[in-house]
Amino acid sequence: MAMKIAVLTSSRADFGIYLPLLNRLKSDSSFQLEIIAFGTHLSKFHGYTVDQIRESGFTTIHEITSLLTNDDEVAIATSFGLTVLKFADFWNNNQYDWVLCLGDRYEMAAAVQAGIPFRVRFAHLHGGETTLGAIDNIYRHQISSASQLHFPATEDFAERIKAITETSENIFTVGSLSIDELESMDIPSEGDFRKKYQINDEFALLTFHPETVSPERNNEYARELLDALLNISEKISLVITMPNADTFGSIFRRTLTKLNEKRLTQVKLIENFGKLNYFAAMRSCKFLLGNTSSGIIEAASFGKYVINVGDRQKGRAQSKNVINCPFDSLKIQNAVKEVSKLPAFTGENIYKKSGTADSIIKILKQYK
């Protein structure tokens, strides 16, 4: 009898990371795969990315709506509570052998917390990591505490999970799924990518999110960022992916929109690339600038340097391609000058471990 597996996906970001594993699960007759889509997947404001799940060939998709349009503390807390209520009903009516969950989003934590009374067996990917500048750090550790099976990316993260869960059992270091089988991914060529998005010049790839641990300072950070990017965009084009639904994310959305209005020809805003086009952008860009985990985890595999701004990713293990600087206009500009002179990065990616998806599949089969 096939093992019944559900996968919790709350955003375009985690779906892209899951994809190598999802394709394996879908093609293996040992598994009956169901997708549980919620969070920004069902938000038209964020591109209604549940359509991307369907376009990727997945047919059994449960949709659970619980996201509010506001992004202040009350709205985030209310969304958390609403997500718990919706998933309490869902877990009461649906049972699985394993439910896969990934990362650190607040809505992911809410879905997992709701499953505890129902004894849902969760398998957590990318646990044990630390991001001191984001409240996601707390949600990630909550998810680890509620999970019975763990797939961290590195040995250091595995050690942290042991400390969080107070056990060394059921923890398997597998590497990062997002860069698994990178060489065989159907990433668009640079020519096709540039033609599709009408990008002709040399460009930097940017992604900025708010610092959720210090929301009162986000207005200050946004002002420093706008000043820096107005200057940087005079020397290099900027391709910017828009923020997720985080606390006070709208502050950065407004800032980036204002930048675009002032620099129409040098700045391009993209709501949602999708994984393959995002990787094409990463491969084609001069360098990355922002405070997103993709710069930390993935960019080294594309030979790119990353300017990591602020504290959102503070504490997360880094390869040697990462240059850190604060939300200070002058320091951001100086970091860009420094990185612009560097050749392609040729060092290792500490998150890379061959056969990540295969390892997870084998372990799941052992834990039916």
UniProtKB/TrEMBL annotation:
GO terms for biological process: UDP-N-acetylglucosamine metabolic process. Pfam families: Epimerase_2 (PF02350). One of its GO terms (molecular function) is hydrolase activity, hydrolyzing O-glycosyl compounds. Residues 24-365 form the UDP-N-acetylglucosamine 2-epimerase domain. NCBIfam families: NeuC_NnaA. This is GDP/UDP-N,N'-diacetylbacillosamine 2-epimerase (Hydrolysing). It comes from Albibacterium bauzanense.
